[in-house]
Amino acid sequence: MIQFEKFTLENGLKVIVHQDTSTPIVAFNLLYNVGSRDEMPNKTGFAHLFEHLMFEGSINIPSFDNALQMAGGENNAFTNNDITNYYITLPKENIETAFWLESDRMFSLDFSEKKLSIQKNVVIEEYNQRYLNQPYGDASLLLRPLAYKVHPYQWPTIGKDISHIKNADLQDVKDFFMHHYAPNNAILSVAGNVTPDEIKTLAKKWFGAIKKREIFKPEIPKEPQQSEPRFMRIERDVPFDAIYKAYHMSAKNHPDYYVADLISDILSNGKSARLYQKLIKEKQLFSDINAYITGDIDEGLFMVAGKLMKGVRIDEGEQAIEHELNKLINDTIDDSEIEKVKNKYESVFQFAHISALNKAMDLAYQELLGDAERINHDVKKFRAVTRQDIQRVASILFHPNNSSTLHYLSKENS
Amino acid sequence: MILNRKIQPAYQDIKEINIINPTKIKLKNNVVAHFIDAGTQEIVKIDIIFEAGSWSQPTPPIASATNEMLMEGTSTLSSQQIAEKLDYYGAFIQPQPTKDFASLSLFTLKKYLPQTITILEDIVKNPSFPQHELTNFINKKKQQFTIEMVKVSNLARRVFNEQIFGTNHPYGKNVQLEDYDSLTREALFDFHKKHYTPQHGKIIVTGKIDDTVIQTIHQHFGNKDWGTTREREYPQKVSQDEIIKEKIIEKENAKQSAVRMGIRMPTQPHPDFIKLTILNTILGGYFGSRLMKNIREEKGYTYGIGSLLLSLKHEGILLIVSEVGANYAKETVNEIFKEINRLKEEKISKEELTLVKNYMMGDFLRSFDGPFALSESYRSIIDFDLTPGYFNRAIEAIKTITPEEILQLAKQYLVEENFVTTIAGKYE
């Protein structure tokens, strides 16, 4: 059981406190309910670019990092399709510095053309480093628009195209801030050797005076059900062919989400999992292969991605994947195999919730999904999945009409 | 009351860090086991470490292949059975081959320790290196190798090691694609027999430790019934070829260039090493470092740049690593040298030094937080046969170092002529 208290300030800021007396470090996590799904199709990559600007100084504090480092702290942030999440760890005695810093940048940033132009450059280099200058790096950039036709998950968090980042101007940035960065669009979670009273006092002191803002939540269009298989084939300067398959799956709050998660574990969690044993070791068709879920709040993707062994034809690899997926629909699964992935899920959950920071992050995220208390039901829900659930969900998931396939071919081979 | 938001709330300097002294137990077979009771969760992590890194191998990649192939079968369990059992208990065993060592780390729920440690024991003592598993391993590794060779970061890393150590030096010799084909079961058996032996083995156990856990370690790894007792054979320390100062690996269409620069440094037991870590932090060891400020935050040439002071068992290096926009590579190298020279010419301001000290103390605190962080921290001294007193000396050095000492260290160690530079991608 992870125990916590929660309260809401008058301006709408939700606050969660988890006491962990075993650590001298306190974790301070501030989640904003804004991600790349909230962007306009012609201005993508904005939530992430904005995350960079959050470190460029706020209205009263010229350097976020200097002040934090003075207090022995460290911080970082990430943006994904759904959220932007900022986190700090620091010695518990210095917790007030975290309140001071985060509340000031929620108040207002110190915007400037120069800072914007430098961070645009940094993000462009990030784009290059992660996606364009890596073998197979652009596969996810290609697969998303194949799988999604209307939902904003069709573009990656880094942005659909570098030009969107290049063209961002200061007014866009200011608007984005006013529309999304506000106490009533955020969840603060603190974990460490602290008391709820202490945190309540600090939260009121530093965040209390920040006014509610009007949040701009664009209507997110629901992706219509796919009615035929989709396919794309490209050639790149890579040494081996690769195959990527994406299937639409349930949203995070749907009970079948856990079923899809469990199916991905049966296929691919650990070296005893099916895809590894069958397709890498036994048939030796792939040098690596993985099945995973994208983990999004709205309807996300169930992915299978593998690199073929030299000399293996891509359709042979694809048939072998489909054969493994169909077995989940047609054959019954041993109880021991189901028990195995459930045990593993439980132990991974335990390992992942050792650090105060991970607990703080997860509590804030679960609160966004509806209730921080969900953190204590996660393993139970996974454990509740039955053999019948697996067959039922697999048959919906792996229906050919639900698939988008990318053949990522090596130029040398063709 | 109106808050003055311009003033930072009062903060305290970190005065004390609770350095736990691990319980050190010499097992019957001379393996030294370090036990660190930490954390609140019912978990245990066991590292078992041998001097079986690439330093000790006859030819690459025997050391890493032996280490990773331990997972692929024992005299009683097949590769698949090992994987099935570990997954069933929700446990992980991570092989980790490095230049000096090869280790296996078991992460397990404490309630399953009796079952999972039996697997670890079997893997360490009775590997069978089945031929079909080895063939599969070789084919997979060759593909991964070929993919890695497309990445500028990997190209730069390989060539840099050759430049700074020489291709005849065990740290400078890179594995080549064809080396995988010459791997044999016999070579792995031989390497395992020589190097996975108790008298040079070490164990670190963290998590929820009690007498049962200690007894379990005695029982599975403490007896004299395994391993040989032969002496270590180290390859002769090879004389350094002449350092090649600059190499450029051209890669057509590269969007970014990998930049790698470095200079030889003393190893961790050297009295200056701790102070050099402070010098390194100033240069490129944290987000607010001079390199990050200059190359990323002022110029926007890169997503990230950093430096680290790396101590291997026999050599140390200060290493600067980045991937920069292809047309910024030359300018980046110039700016890196500017920052290095600035350290040698200007005394660091009190303010910047205080910031670095406070940051490093915070970092120290974080590196002693929780069982996994603790085991990594202790690993860093145990590998060099240092005692926990090392941490107290480090804290003392951080607290007391002066701007004059930093300047002196920079002048003494950061000799521009001795820097080695590698660029993979474009250099323009």
Overall helicity of chain A: 40-55%
Largest interface (CB within 8 Å) is between: A-B, 83 and 72 residues
Question: Structurally, how many domains make up the residues of chain B?
Answer: 2
Q: Can you write the helix and strand succession of chain A as a string?
A: EEEHHEEHHHHHEHEEHHEEHHHHHE
Decide which structural class fits the backbone of chain B: alpha+beta
Poorly predicted regions of chain B: none
Could you provide a short overview of the structure?
The complex is a heterodimer of chains A (414) and B (428). Chain A is of the alpha+beta class and 414 residues long.
Describe this structure in words.
The complex is a heterodimer of chains A (414) and B (428). Chain A is α+β, with helices and mostly antiparallel strands and 414 residues long. Helix content of chain A is 42%, strand content 19%. Chain A is built from 15 helices and 11 strands. Chain A has a 6-stranded mixed sheet with strand order 1-2-6-3-5-4, sandwiched between helices. Chain A has a 5-stranded mixed sheet with strand order 7-11-8-10-9, with helices on both faces. In chain A, strand 4 (74-79) and strand 5 form a beta hairpin. The longest helix of chain A has 20 residues, at 113-132. The mean pLDDT of chain A is 96. With 428 residues, chain B is an alpha+beta fold. Chain B has 2 domains: 23-221, 2-Layer Sandwich (Cytochrome Bc1 Complex, Chain A, domain 1); 246-425, Metalloenzyme, LuxS/M16 peptidase-like (Cytochrome Bc1 Complex, Chain A, domain 1, 2-Layer Sandwich), CATH 3.30.830.10. In chain B, the strands form 2 sheets. Chain B has a 6-stranded mixed sheet with strand order 1-2-6-3-5-4, sandwiched between helices. In chain B, strands 7-11-8-10-9 form a 5-stranded mixed sheet, sandwiched between helices. Chain B starts with 22 loop residues before the first strand and ends with a strand. In chain B, 46% of the residues are buried. The model of chain B has no long low-confidence stretch (mean pLDDT 94). Chains A and B meet through helix 2, strand 5, helix 3, helix 4 and helix 10 of A and helix 2, strand 5, helix 4, helix 10 and strand 10 of B.
